[in-house]
Amino acid sequence: MFTMRFDMRDPAWGAAPAELYAAAPEMCAWAEDHGGLAAVLCEHHGSEDGYLPSPMVLAPAIAARTQRLSLSLILILPFYEPVRLAEDMAVLDIISNGRASYILALGYRPEEFEHFGLAVSDRGRLCDEKIALLRRLLAGETVVQDGRRITVTPRPLTAGGPGLMWGGGTVAAARRAGRYGLGMLGNANEPGMREAYEAACAKHGHTPGGTFFPDRDTPSVVFVADDIDQAWSELGEHLLHDVQTYAAWNPGDETTAGFSHVRNVDELRETGTSHVIISVPEAISWIRAGKVLNLSPLCGGLPPSVAWPYLKRVGEVVLPEALSKEASL
Amino acid sequence: MFTLRFDMRAPSWAGPAADLYGAAIDMCEWAETRGAALAVLSEHHGADDGHLPVPLMLASAIASRTRTLAILLAAVAIPLWDPVRLAEEMSVLDLISRGRVWYAFGVGHRREEFEHFGVDMSTRGRAADEMLEVLGPLVRGEVVSYRGRQVRVTPPCATDGGPMVLIAGGSKAAARRAGTHGFGFVSQTALPGLKELYESECRAHGHEPGMIQFPVEGAPTTVFVADDVDQAWDVLGPHLLHDAIMAASYRPGDDSVASISRADSVDALRQESGGPYRIFTPDEAIDYIRGGRLLPLHPLCGGVAPEVAWPYLEVAAAASARAQDHSTDR
Asked: Is the CB of residue B17 less than 8 Å away from at least one CB of chain A?
């Protein structure tokens, strides 16, 4: 089984942007019939490489082309107007028939706070205010605040609204998730996160929700190839762009899963942690070990014509083989 | 040829609102090869009947299931938006739709909606002007100075110069705004002098006057096509009346907007001569289209259930096909 992350990063030397935006929904439509479990969409703002700024706008395009695929949207909460966000979520809940869920996060790039005229130092307070209003609106409440009367219509299809979790890579984030009483997705495994999360849940009277704490060695970008050398020469620069851009945004961060500090394609390949290209037999053994492959089919602005065979190999070769009865004996 | 309007209104006595969304997307996909020239999506907030609040979301879904259909969002009330966020969404939607999504921007007119967002209604004109100043350059990916900061939206849109933008409104201020910024102008009223004002404002600001549209006297805004018109009024009447009453209630005391009916019963709505709501026979629809006009369909008007709505759309599309086929003698 596999997931697909689409962040729409696209350096100037990558694919034509409109081709990437056409390919993402197409890949999702194909993938849900070939073992794809979920599409993961995330956001950043004002990024030189065109990183997707509005997962909420790409998600309906994917939802309209799929029937069963889960949609996981990672949103940076301080940048949203909570009333409009509740409206977007309600409509996406209807369009997707309840398939979209959300991981909300605090945000960290000062440039992005500046982009929206906000101060990074305000982000905790902004999240406190916005999450509270968002949840009341999604629950169908008419909220009266500051002399305003706010009701979000239409109501979400999912009773109580779509699933929300908190995301982050620090003990402080775990505490916040616990205080909000939301499930927690850690994008790192800083020691003590789970304990901090559970303690905060207990302190604020919440039952702990679902948690997921991948460690730094969980590959966030997996490609499956017949010829690994050839694949590195074809994909390497795109993967390197992805990893280096994240690293530049997180100077000194050694714990977050998903990126490493490398100087060139050879070093990235050597590191073998966040961005990996594995063989078909290796992918089969991962699946048989119960792992999910985290694909990022268009990583670093990969042209769709190059990207498709890697995705199809997973759906047409790896999964049928890994799941076949004979082979499992 | 025809247009398809969707506002997703669904009064509580009609079917589930959720059914309408899938149907709207399916209808656009089906109709784009059968004479649909344009889908029109509108926006209102906090409506009891669930009127679509976020047309950009539905536009994205429709765009991903169609290839050629143009999608007009009319009207988007820009003072209720943050321009940076709106520019980002417009850019992404432009990439997804390959330039097929157009915008008619308005200043908003319902006090409740300003309150909903905590936005001051009294300064809406100024807010709109401030936004229109920066929105185009933002969508194109230019570095823009906005409220003391330097902002650049990425990715830039795909369409050269940005997606098509019109100004919607019915006042002199709207005509002036459209002319100042060099956008096309869709007027909801036939106020005398607006055309001249628009054109002179365009020239004064160095723009070639763009597309301009006024309501046509006696032209319908919501049409269904049926073989049995009496039966259709029985089935559709309450839905059309709901739409009429809601639209009128959004414009209290304002009779200048051409699409507004003040009918308070299905019979009154049907009797309005030259009124906005009509059910045509196929022959009437063919004559209408052959008169060079687009049939303004509103297939799910007032929450008509999809299974009820589909046959009317099929009859309308068949009439449209016959209207195009000049060799067919009726």
From this structure: yes
